[in-house]
Amino acid sequence: MTDLPEPPSRQQRQQQTRAALIEAAREVFAELGYHAANLERIARQAGFSKGAVYSNFSGKAALFLAVMDANLETVWSQPTGSADTPRPDTSSADVFETADEAELDQVIRGFALATLEFIAVAARDEELSAELQQRMQDVVDQYTQVAHDSQIVDDELTPQQLGTLLTALDQGSGLLVLGGTDLVDDDLLGVGMQRLLATKSTTDEAGPVKTAQHADQPAEAGADRTTNSHIQDRLLRALGNPTVQD
Question: Which PROSITE patterns match (predicted)?
Fold first, then answer.
């Protein structure tokens, strides 16, 4: 007789419920926005009662932060050593699971718009503002690591400062796209980031010596990206930057 599998433990069931609620919340927030989304709709879409939400989260703001955390956790867990994987492999985690790329892009854009609503709410709430700042600092830290790993040679900007600028370029470009401008696309954003990561030249008696890509050498749009560039792609997608396209 084949042994039956052990039933999931209480903790495992709670983790499964939490994951289902987060996935449903991502879709509802993307569809309706932060303000219009309600916990009853999210619970129903996940297949639970509203009480299940309050058993796992203190409220809508906490659930929204949990979606952000799930997005970023997917990013941080991805390996960065292969240039053949410019996008996160989400087959083992249901984050960003969707039927096709068009639907995925719609979810990304919708969640980005919901995030703008949430930022406005958090700005008026000291506790939520601190929570949001912590997550944005995590993103800055990741970009700082990108700058550090790129072996930046710059006597003016530290990797921390470069990480902050990369984050600002990332979030600012996303805001422009959400506002309806078509001036920023993935190629232009990539060029801007590559310019920030380009090392400055050092000078000796014989003149300037290029230590890597020179700061005044424009990067070609659509050129092959480095391994660190893939981290940038993942961060942009996790935070819902609509400039990122496949």
Answer: HTH_TETR_2
